[in-house]
């Protein structure tokens, strides 16, 4: 009981700090919609990098990924982590700088749907509306996955009722998001990114030390068929009645491992493609203070990602050696990080470390909610229904949207047996396939047009839904992760439809041809900082063409 008190105290202190940050930034965030949704484009490289990664990884990093490694071995989490690490680097390398610059030229866009609409000169709001609806659908699923993490955390730590703690945790996220806006999200994401890294490092080092050393740990794991193989998946033998893994003579029972072929490896590596379409990451590129700071952010973000993913996978693997028969279902396996922290660490330190799980869930769900709110307020309400809406009206609509997402997320999370990994993979595929190909074409292909953009988003979303629910269950080659075929089909549709329809206007082509010029067309040089207000000179030149 005393141990529970110190763990709970550490977590309460952490929650109070996060809420305080929301209230501290509330005055500035509520000064305008640009401040509320994008922080006024004044966020530095460290905040940008760590907030992007913390919001991206969520509780999946500390629960879903280690749980997968604990239950079925190295193959799935290893190739997934490698794909994510490569995707992180490439996204910062080939998208960040261009998106930051183009978003200024394209009418000072502050949200991803807003950027797509202004990039393709969509005056009717078709593109932004479709994009906003896609974001709302998949982000509600994402928010639900974060709430699942919160419920499992408190249930595993204290035995508290899953549903009650899931709802209370969701309320904490909701309050500081609705009060503080983007800046509070970024600042808390930064703190949570640091805490997540600290938590992973502490538990990883402690687990290795207590598992009997590296040599004994590796020997034990090698004795499990296929557990450390990159081309096989370990096969836990389950009791047909209880659904739990069988245990004989103090050891968990594994059957003959299944093959992990090249198609499956490519499928897992395809997780990296999702980054090109993740609004919670892309919006960080819009808000960074200067294009010159992108390179520093890229180094920070990639380094954090590689070390954190590697630690999470190793915690799951070594956790199997340390606790071979403790967690006997795939759902229970997702609590391995929590169980190890309780076993290895003093109570107060454990409370701080496991706050990293809540930190991950808070950072992600708050980012998803603020982006979903911005999509409804800016892109649907102001962009489609009420073009002369004031900032105050937009933020009222945004906050109402937060309430709806909050309630829908609770509905998604209500099933206690939901797999965090599976829920996240579905939403990741939906967003990656809907926006990833379009983002690459928007930044690199001048012939892309409005019709192609619409075709790409709709085909990407539809393919994910159809493939996941109807084709993937067929097995074999069709069991590939739905993101890969959906990404390719979306890209194909953008190219084909763009080529078959009217070429972009001269004004759009001019913007594309010159958005990477230095200084930007339509801006004044301003040292290393990108100036955000377009000048009349560009407009008159475009009209002249």
Count of the separate structural domains: 1
Mean pLDDT: 82
CATH topology: Sodium/glucose cotransporter
CATH superfamily: Sodium/glucose cotransporter
Please state the second-level CATH architecture. Answer: Up-down Bundle
Strand content: under 5%
Low-confidence stretches: 30-40, 523-545
The number of distinct β-strands equals 4
Envelope shape: globular
Query: Main sheet?
Result: 2 strands, antiparallel
| Helix-residue proportion | over 70%
Distance between the termini: 76 Å
Strand neighbour order, sheet with most strands: 1-4
- How many helices? 21
- Give the H and E element order: HHHHHHHHHEEEEHHHHHHHHHHHH
Features of the shown structure:
545 residues, two-stranded antiparallel sheet, two-stranded antiparallel ribbon
Description:
The chain is an all-alpha fold. It has a single domain, classed as Sodium/glucose cotransporter (Up-down Bundle). Helices cover 73% and strands 3% of the residues. It has 21 helices and 4 strands. It has helices at 2-24, 26-29, 33-38, 45-72, 75-105, 112-119, 126-158, 162-210, 213-222, 262-269, 279-287, 294-322, 330-333, 336-344, 347-385, 391-413, 420-444, 450-471, 483-500, 506-514, 536-544, and strands at residues 232-236, 247-248, 251-252, 254-259. The strands form 2 sheets. The chain has a two-stranded antiparallel ribbon with strand order 1-4. A two-stranded antiparallel sheet has the order 2-3. It is globular. The model is unreliable at 30-40 and 523-545 (pLDDT under 50).
């Amino acid at each position: 009981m005393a141990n529970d008190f110190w763990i709970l105290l550490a977590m309460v202190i952490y929650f109070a700090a996060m809420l305080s940050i929301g209230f501290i930034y509330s005055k500035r965030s509520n000064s305008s919609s640009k401040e509320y949704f994008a922080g006024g484009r004044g966020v530095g490289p460290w905040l940008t990098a760590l907030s992007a990664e913390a919001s991206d990884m969520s509780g999946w990093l500390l629960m879903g990924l280690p749980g997968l490694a604990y239950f079925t071995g190295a193959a799935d989490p290893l190739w997934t982590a490698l794909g994510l690490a490569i995707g992180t680097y490439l996204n910062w390398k080939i998208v960040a700088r261009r998106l930051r610059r183009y978003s200024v030229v394209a009418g000072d866009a502050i949200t991803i749907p807003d950027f797509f609409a202004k990039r393709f000169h969509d005056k009717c709001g078709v593109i932004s509306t479709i994009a906003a609806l896609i974001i709302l659908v998949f982000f509600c699923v994402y928010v639900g996955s974060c709430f699942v993490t919160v419920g499992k955390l408190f249930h595993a730590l204290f035995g508290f009722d899953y549903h009650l703690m899931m709802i209370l945790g969701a309320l904490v996220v909701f309050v500081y998001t609705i009060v503080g806006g983007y800046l509070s999200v970024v600042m808390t994401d930064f703190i949570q990114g640091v805490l997540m890294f600290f938590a992973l490092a502490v538990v990883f080092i402690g687990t290795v030390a207590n598992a009997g050393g590296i040599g004994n740990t590796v020997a034990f794991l090698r004795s499990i068929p296929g557990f450390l193989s990159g081309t096989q998946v370990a096969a836990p033998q389950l009791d047909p009645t209880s659904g739990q893994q069988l245990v004989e003579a103090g050891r968990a029972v594994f059957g003959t491992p299944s093959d992990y072929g090249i198609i499956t490896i490519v499928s897992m590596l395809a997780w990296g493609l999702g980054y090109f379409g993740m609004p919670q990451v892309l919006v960080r590129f819009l808000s960074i203070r200067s294009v010159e700071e992108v390179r520093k952010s890229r180094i920070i973000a990639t380094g954090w990602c590689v070390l954190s993913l590697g630690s999470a996978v190793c915690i799951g693997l070594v956790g199997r050696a340390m606790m071979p028969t403790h967690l006997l279902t795939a759902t229970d396996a997702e609590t391995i990080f929590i169980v190890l922290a309780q076993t290895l660490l003093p109570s107060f330190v454990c409370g701080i470390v496991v706050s990293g799980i809540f930190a991950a869930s808070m950072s992600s769900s708050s980012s998803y909610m603020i982006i979903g709110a911005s999509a409804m307020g800016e892109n649907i309400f102001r962009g489609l229904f009420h073009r002369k809406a004031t900032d105050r009206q937009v933020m009222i609509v945004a906050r109402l949207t937060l309430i709806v997402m909050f309630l829908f997320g609770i509905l998604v999370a209500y099933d206690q047996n939901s797999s965090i990994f599976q829920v996240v993979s579905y939403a990741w595929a939906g967003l990656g396939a809907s926006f990833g190909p379009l983002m690459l074409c928007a930044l690199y292909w001048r012939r892309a047009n409005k019709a192609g953009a619409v075709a790409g988003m709709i085909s990407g979303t539809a393919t994910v839904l159809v493939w996941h629910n109807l084709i993937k269950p067929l097995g074999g080659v069709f069991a590939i992760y739905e993101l890969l075929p959906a990404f390719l089909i979306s890209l194909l549709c953008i190219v084909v439809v763009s080529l078959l329809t009217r070429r972009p206007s001269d004004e759009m082509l001019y913007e594309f041809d010159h958005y990477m010029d230095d200084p930007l067309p339509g801006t004044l040089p301003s040292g290393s900082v990108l100036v955000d207000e377009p000048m009349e000179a560009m407009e008159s030149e475009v009209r002249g063409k």
